[in-house]
Automatic annotation (TrEMBL):
SUPFAM superfamilies: FAD/NAD(P)-binding domain, FAD/NAD-linked reductases, dimerisation (C-terminal) domain. It comes from Paractinoplanes lichenicola. Coiled coil: none annotated. Its cofactor is FAD. Residues 328-412 form the Reductase C-terminal domain. The keyword Phosphoprotein does not apply. Residues 7-309 form the FAD/NAD(P)-binding domain. It comes from the Bacteria. This is FAD-dependent oxidoreductase.
């Protein structure tokens, strides 16, 4: 193993590709190889649950970069290659196909896989998950023949699929264990809004229930779901969106610390002191100073994957910068653009700006006088103002924020 063997990035999606690109931006001179298990050219995942299902685009049109870009920047892509074993002593990673990849430095950007539902009948035809382009194509195909779509889970993926299926004219039911939609990501007022918005558009929502079993027909295709409250719902397509589990098997093999993700420090370095990691697979120190946050956080968002990848690349390139950013993400459901900035979990009060009835409002979260986060529905300018305020450690007077006639960016206190 020698540094001149360069960097091997395992995982060729949002984090892995950003890591490779940032290495070149930071002037890293040695070879860079990105190896990915999927056969598709590295692509954006967010449209999979929206535009791909609506038929407005195809996975082939979602490439992150062109082939020419990779060639011009000396980034070698090895696609359709799943790494199954990494030998750090020899500096070689082995793929299922038998191919071997030498490396001087290793970066893990292996992402996450959908959490599986361990109930009888979960292996019936028509019980689907959505993580990658092939899943999206299978789901699109299944939607073409479905009448009643049942979505298990009330997080982003579940609700985006529900919205897409409804837009396509299907009967849609969402069933979730939690007592509110989007419970892990937004505050109660925003959850209540999305419950109302989905219901108004004809989605049936059942809270506080989970599937006990799926039952099927003679051909092994799903025909219904039995829920924990005893209710039976017919279904000819079930989409399970109950969260994602970080892919940690290579990290385990390497003896790296794992705690709901591959543990990294603020510079993206794992517990062996040299391997870096970024994206959905990573558990990192919180990137903001707020009371009562856990020691490590795992985010699943495009922005986090990009920012963590930049940090890991800077570490390898010898220009270390810590991961200090305001986390943010978005979700598109029907004509509703939700944007979330910051972490609201430690808030002690919130203010509402605008009118949820008009489907255009913001919720700003405060810890004492300090602005710590916001949820925004169809208010992109407010989102940008709050994101900038949080990044600059500034606040907005809660009393003034309720006046929608005044742009939020004018209310940021210095
Ligand atoms: C349907 C969907 C919609 C989404 N919508 C939004 C949205 O609207 N907004 C938002 O902010 N975020 C959204 N996200 C989340 C966002 O896409 C992810 O957070 C982001 O893709 C994470 O990037 P990543 O590179 O860390 O992981 P991944 O995207 O999971 O990529 C990891 C890659 O590594 C590969 N891999 C894993 N193990 C190996 C191995 N052993 N050998 C080789 N390759 C391997 C995998 O095949 C995969 O291609 C969405 C996600 C999904 C699935």
């Amino acid at each position: 193993m020698s540094d001149t063997d360069g960097v091997l990035v395992i995982g060729a999606c949002q984090a892995g590709i950003q890591l490779a690109c940032s290495l070149r931006e930071y002037g890293y001179p040695d070879p860079i190889t990105v190896v990915g298990a999927e056969r598709h050219a590295p692509y954006q995942r967010p449209p999979l649950s929206k535009a791909v299902l609506h038929g407005e685009t195809t996975p082939g049109a979602l490439a992150l970069r062109s082939e020419a870009f990779y060639a011009d920047h000396g980034i070698a892509l090895a696609l359709g290659e799943r790494i199954t074993r990494v030998d750090r002593s020899t500096g070689v990673a082995h793929a299922l196909s038998g191919r071997a990849f030498a490396f001087g430095r290793l970066a893990l950007a292996v992402g996450a896989r959908p959490r599986r539902l361990p109930v009888p009948g979960a292996d019936l035809g028509g019980v689907l998950y959505l993580r990658d382009a092939d899943d999206a194509l299978a789901l699109k195909h299944a939607l073409a023949n479905a009448g009643h779509v049942v979505v298990i889970g009330g997080g982003f993926i579940g609700l985006e699929v529900a919205a897409s299926a409804r837009r396509l004219g299907h009967r849609v039911t969402v069933a979730l264990l939690e007592d509110r939609l989007l419970g892990r990501a937004v505050g109660e007022a925003t959850s209540a809004f999305f419950h109302g918005a989905h219901t108004r558009r004809g989605v049936q929502v059942h809270l506080g229930v989970q599937p006990v079993q799926f039952y099927g027909d003679d051909r092994g295709n799903v025909r219904g779901v039995e829920l924990s409250d005893g209710r039976h719902i017919t279904a000819d397509l079930v989409v399970v969106g109950i969260g994602a589990v970080p892919r940690t098997e290579l990290a385990e093999q390497l003896g790296l610390d794992i705690s709901n993700g591959i543990v990294v420090d603020a510079h993206g370095v794992t517990s062996d002191g040299t391997t870096v990691a970024a994206g959905d697979c990573v558990a990192c120190p919180p990137p903001v100073d707020l009371p009562d946050l856990p020691a490590r956080i795992r985010f699943e968002s495009v922005n986090t994957a990009i920012e963590q990848a930049k940090v890991a690349a800077a570490t390898i390139a010898g220009r270390p910068v810590p991961y200090r950013v305001v986390p943010w993400f978005w979700s598109d459901q029907f004509n509703l653009k939700l944007q979330v900035a910051g972490l609201s979990s430690g808030h002690d009060r919130y203010v509402l700006r605008g009118d949820p009835e008009m489907e255009k409002f913001a919720v700003l979260y405060y810890a004492g006088e300090r602005l710590i986060a916001g949820d925004f529905v169809n208010r992109p300018a407010d989102f940008l103002a709050v994101k900038a305020a949080l990044a600059g450690g500034r606040t907005i007077s809660p009393a003034a924020a309720t006046d929608v006639a005044v742009p939020l960016k004018k209310l940021v206190l210095t």
